[in-house]
Amino acid sequence: xxxxxxxxxxxxxxxxxxxxxxxxxxxxxxxLDDASIxxxxxxxxxxxxxxxxxRKSALCKLGPDAYGVEVLTVGGRPVTAYGNEKDPAxxxxxxxxxxxxxxxxxSPARVKSPMKKDGASMVPISWDxxxxxxxxxxKVAGDKVAMISGDETGTAAEVLAxxxxxxxxxxxxxxxxxxxxxxxxxxxxxxxxxxxxxxxxNSDCILVLGADICQAWGPGVGKSCMDAKATGGSLLYAxxxxxxxxxxxxxxxxxxxxxxxxxxxxxxxxxIQAGRSADTMGMSEFSDFVRKGFSPAxxxxxxxxxxxxxxxxxxxxxxxxxxVVVIGSEIGQGLSTFEAAAGMSLNFLxxxxxxxxxxxxxxxxxxxxxxxxxxxxxxxxxxxxxxxGVAVGRNEAPAVMLVHEANPAYALPGGQSMAxxxxxxxxxxxxxxxxxxxxxxxxLILPASYSxxxxxxxxxxxxxxxxxYLATAPVIGPVNDTKTAGDIILAVADELGLGLGLxxxxxxxxxxxxxxGADWSGLLEDGEAWTSERTAFQFFLSMWKVPFDADLxxxxxxxxxxxxxxxxxxxxxxxxxxxxxxxxxxxxxELQGQDCFVAMNKATAAMIGVDQGSMVKIASQSGxxxxxxxxxxxxxxxxVSACLGFGHTxxxxxxxxxxxxxCDVLLVQxxxxxxxxxxxxxxxxxxxx
Amino acid sequence: MQAHTFHIKWGMVxxxxxxxxxxACMVACQAENNVAPVTEASNKLRTLSWMLVYQxxxxxxxxxxxxxxxxxxxxxxxxxxxxTVCPVVATTKDEEGGIVSQVYPRCIGCRYCMAACPYxxxxxxxxxxxxxxxxxxxxxxxxxVRPRGVVEKCTFCHHRWMAAxxxxxxxGHDPSHLAEDAYIPACVDICPTGAMHFGDLLNPEHExxxxxxxxxxxxxxxxxxxxxxxxxxxxxxxxxxxxDNYLKHEKTKxx
Amino acid sequence: xxxxxxxxxxxxxxxFVASLFLGWWGFPQLLYxxxxxxxxxxxxVHVEDQAMSCEDCHFYREDGSYAGLPTTESCASCHEAPMxxxxxxxxxxxxxxxxxxxxxxxxxxxxKQPDNVxxxxxxxxxxxxxxxxxxxAFNETLPVYYExxxxxxxxxxxxxxxxxxxxxxxxASNACFVCHK
Lengths: 689, 255, 181
Description:
The structure holds 3 protein chains of 3 kinds. Chain A is of the alpha/beta class. Helix content of chain A is 31%, strand content 20%. In chain A, strand 23 and strand 24 (624-631) form a beta hairpin. The longest helix of chain A has 16 residues, at 8-23. Chain B contains 7 helices and 8 strands, in the order βαββααββααβαββα. Chain C is 35% helix and 4% strand. Chain C has helices spanning 9-31, 43-49, 72-79, 87-97, 160-169, 176-179; strands at residues 32-35, 145-148. Chain C starts with 8 loop residues before the first helix and ends with a helix. At the A-B interface, strand 3, helix 7, helix 8 and strand 21 of A face helix 1, strand 2, strand 3 and helix 5 of B.
């Protein structure tokens, strides 16, 4: 040691040498570089996964429409949805719900397995247990079984209806829509057969009364209207709120909420005055009816549309070579049969039935199952009228209520009272893929697979000018412990010994395709839609076969405040709450924190005595909602516009507890002689809250 | 900074008269580009919307009111205000096609670019992205996931251009001369009313070239000299007038 | 105590050399962990014995993207059941082919790039594969995979400067979005 003379200085020298040496190695530079790379890859930031890209055809039925989409898969994993150019119903477009449809596979609101009610909570059970509970309940209920489906175009609803019919019940209901009143009007009021559709793309003058067709009737309708505009056609929109359709129309004709049918009859009067007539029975009575009750002055008083404008509308329709008129509700439901007929009467007077660029009547698809109701028989039944009857004791509550692809506890008028009617059912069964409000109150949930997880199909959504059929195979196997709705129902039927004759839902769809003459493998593999230009044969059309409705023409301006509800598909639909990926699209004019907005113009706000941002309570005879005032000059005076789709109490954090449900304020305003309930524009009171 | 000259100028022409304001473009964009879903989006200063639909009003009282919707992607400016202020060259306009790039690992989150962008097209990640309960299974392989602390923006779905070039190469076509519809961003692809057009603004055969020359075409805040590659189209004069700051009696461009 | 002359130079040199040794030899040992691939795979058996071409497994898909490693499903087109008695093959069939819906083998990829990097194989079609990848065609066993403990990337993952240099030398654009996403 002594000799070596190693001491503190030597040690420092060693360290200095070591430090110097390190600089001639990659240690420092490599560590710096690696540390910067390390800082780019936090473990909680997800990594991407790669694979072959492919597209599989699927169906989007999240809105009131049904159309084909293509699901992009990466290594077999579905990631997002694109349009399907081969589907005439969408023309390659996608609605805001369809755009978020793939992500819904993994929505936190998915029901993960069958569940039954146990006291106040729901407990998971096995499929065997679930099916046997349902079998026992149905056995006891006998023919007191009812069903509600929100799948207006799919065969799954028909399988369910076949089961209900097989049990001897005729209580098969579809959720309220545009198709119900339109079909009732066409069949009962005009004596026609088939489903009305509108050839928008070939029309040169489209008069839209009420319905928000360009935003809410599916992507193909919007595209068709724009195509018509691009070739010089005009698009006119009459309604109480400047909605998406008004934004792209050549002209917005403001009218009081719920008075579009009165406006239609005013225009009909003007057309008759101009010499238009339909050479059918009932024409002279119709002519008398509109002349007496719907003179320009009378119509102006009720609708707020000036007499000169009514005349102008009739002249524009007369001048056009291929005009078409479409009437509907701003929220896609709640029109009465007669209101629907009032709109259709204009197409009659203009001679536009089964004409290019006019109304085209598409034949019905024959049921796959013997004894099952055809879709028009299902549309003839009005769910709201039925449940209203249950509420007041006019109808007996069913012992078992089966709910498929629908959320009646949330989306029906007077939400709370309808939910109460549902509660009166002895045993409520939900086939919902999501924990919606109806599933949350059900006694039993047998969760159906999401549309992309099983076979699904769609025959001619309402409004389509052509017969179309789309069928799709699963894009991915069930993510949760679910089964295809059709297969669940077939299994139940089997257990009950009601053998419907077909083993699987896939076979049912194959039979449907065969009935239509569609190529099954083409449908499935290429996403190719089956289409048919065939129109339904009309045996005996006449103008207004049934007595005129005394209520037609009663709505309108009378100094009262009226609700003008609107639908925006990005926020949700009657069956779908706001999907996770759509929260971003809700604007600051529609929702702030927990508060939704209700829109009115300055004059209305001044009349009520509220300002921008005031919290108000809106009440009708049926219920109430709250919202902050949004001053928007695109609402007619005397009307308050509220967006449906808020105020969910079930689902997930993406939609629950945001705003209040405007459906609660909707009020059933009457049942027409054709069995239809009319709702949508109740009188309201508005007060500061 | 010297501006590059490009032979391709990817551009969009958005027909405002066809936009219903439905928001499908926003959803498609979010899904395609891996923007995480949020449960609360009221505070628009904290959300990320590469594509954002604005509501326009002619500011008239009822019944003369008119409404229109304006979808706003990144303008991919010819003279970008953002890239010139970036201290770390994380955002540049240097590639053929004229798409303004944004490289996330390079971004230091200073947000100068956000202050500079007159279109509010840039967004800052205030939080780490969260995909709840298996929703991360729908992540696309197209866009890397951004952590908190970096700025992001619309890229005209740049990955779709890359994919179109790969396809062209595989099929033996010239990747620098793509067919008109070979490359379109997700928002344009999905639009349910066909309100958005996309293509090469310099290619006379492309629809956008013709549309951008229309007297009804305009760009946002043109007077700033940013030379955006996004055009809007409206036959309504009041809409065009809102695209820029006009003096009261100044004539609207194109009138 | 006599005043001793302390030793300074030798410790300095020793320290210097020790650091060089540590930095060039020890540091990589510490920085990289050695991983063996989940399965043994012989390229040689496939290429030489079975006369398969590289493109049978590593090919461009119809959309021009590169398939890279074959999926278990494509391997299963031959190996649905074991073809021989090689334990690796039997393991592959048992653990991956027969597992659910063709479970993918979690191969370590020697050149795997971060998510923010975009690379098009077809754009580099003229370049020899071995300019970037190890030549595996006649390998009987798969090389050891070195994983950087800090970054979790492979030791062989190409760095940005390498891409940029080649682009610059060949007149290709070095614009950010050419390679980043």
